[in-house]
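Quick question about two entries, pasted in order.
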Amino acid sequence: MRGGTMRAAVIHSTGPADGIRVEDLPIPETRPGEVLVRVTATTVNHVDTFVRSGAYRTPLPFPFVVGRDLVGSVEHTASDVTDLLPGDAVWCNSLGHGGRQGAAAQFAAVPRERLYRIPDGVDPIDLVALAHPAATAWLGLVEHGRLRPGGTAFVGGGGGNVGSCAVAFALSMGAGVVTTAGARGLERLAAMGAVAYDYHDPDVVARLEHALTRVASGDDAPAATGADVWLDTSGSLDLSQAVGLLADRGRIVLIAGMRRHDGFGFGDLYTHDRSIVGFAISNATVAELGRAADAIGAAMASGSLPVPAIERRRLEDTAAAHADVEAGLVRGRRIVLLP
């Protein structure tokens, strides 16, 4: 397709949510290695609000189309892309930063290496709702946390979007999982197979210590106990509490808490070969994102990832959706925008 215009949700400078406008833009031209995708749906993530506001600094071409996740169909491809055909169902979760235009538009030009096929039988709306939280969970646990089958994982905030995906991925690997959540999520997490505690419980640290010892030891295991991977999506426990609950060579993966300042003793790290690593999905390599996409596709095809409640809105509602996400009004749900 050449020429023509499309509707897109754009900003002309970083700032508050009410700076988003839905405007007519030229349909993007595909450069070598790119695919023009007709967008079926996109989402709003917390990280999208960070990019839009300027809190997360990244190159932005203005006018800038917001959003990073999409599902859609191939409209046409650059001449050097030969493995996709018009009409093929595809998805992407790494637009809208690093100099790339975003997904909240009727069309998007996507680098082939960042585009994945939607597996047969997978609902595209469910997939776009899970694209970001599921990739964050898998990359945090497996790429950065190095969780292995049969290991032990702690997931803080297991009732949230990222947390519930992390619980599901860890359980599918045969890992023992201990998690915290609000009271409403405990029964569902226990039914999934996790040991779940209310993070409001004043004795939660003692309960976690007992649970991690029991889950990590198992019936046949030696005395080594604790979490091999600690992934806290909620920030409810500080590092001084978390470090002592790790197994030897256990790893804390930080994915939240930009303004937190926790104190802890270094001795508990180096005398047990423990480590703390940071992870932001915007820094993920193409290869890492591709491995996450494979895992997400397989998990969704098997039905092992929990699908959150989905609220569908129009592209014209993008500004309001950003504001609602920033205000914490859509917890436990995902907004899907339909261009």
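Here is the second entry:
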Amino acid sequence: MTTSQYVGIAIIAGYWVVLITTRWMFIARPNRRFTLARIDDAQYFLEPEAPPSLLDEARSIASGTHVYDDLPWLRERRGLDPPDDPEVERVLRRFLRRASDPFIWNGSRDLVAWNLMHRVEADHAATLTGPALIAAMMKAQSQLEDLPPGKRTYWARVLHDQLDGAPGGRLRDEPVAQAIMRNLLNELYNARDTKFTNLATQQNKVTWLVFTGLAILAALVSQGYEDLLLAGAVGGILSRLQRELQRRDVPSDYGLSWSVLFLSPVSGALSAWAGLLLLQTLQKFNVLELSSLLPDSADLTAPTGAMLGVAILFGISERILDRLVRQAEDEIATQPAAAKKSAAAAQEPPSHPTAAAPEVAAP
């Protein structure tokens, strides 16, 4: 392997380390800290003097700690005995867990903590009475857009019937309204939790694709395509940079936009390599005529300036590769049909002209 190939593989390894670090610092830790702050806020307002509940479990899950190892104050509140493990073992276990967290984080702890906290909030809302219950129902009424259309219509009618019959801030049947409030909040929170679970799953899928793409790039670099891949990666970064500059309002997406940002240079590099190979294939099929750009003797491991420019173009625009793929599919699909027609024509017997009847000489 040449020096440039070693440098390319080192860059790929460094990119993976930067990705893991960035993912931990700008996705995992902010989500975890926000979750813990939200749990503290809920416990302060909902359970200031209450016994241990699901919020304590949510805090231990979100912080990544184990109740029997790292939460002596919680053990004391629950009347549990101190752990029997030696201090050295507990410190070592805590160190190994924190060292491995950036590599194995997938957002599941935060999602479970939010689910537990939502259950506590729904149960607390069901204990409200009088104007506080009406205000909570009005607040929930303003958040019905989180529900699917069918459920949104149903709950809008239910809340309208409840609030319409509450003159002077009094509900007709308060226990029924409390049960409705609990069920409605469970529906709302389930819809939100499902949304963020899907976002976290998609974010993990994109991270897996980045890892797979980097492994493929390392294999291609070992084959000598480092210049071509670098040009494609530059195109991918330029494409993502333009989109980020044009973006205005970005909702909370549980780190999905960061993961797509990680994927852009990897996707651009692979698109450049695949696009130029596809151009060569289409040229051999006589679909395109690019002999001035890609002569028959062109070597992709030693690309010219024009080839690098095309690689950057493939990295910037995914549509070019999509169009070439469709064009190749059409060409491959039409060639067998043409071959069948020519074979059928060759198998037909040759047509002979009908022999003219011999003339009979008149006597």
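Reply: Confidence is low (pLDDT under 50) at residues 66-71, 353-363. The chain has 13 helices and no strands. Hope that helps.
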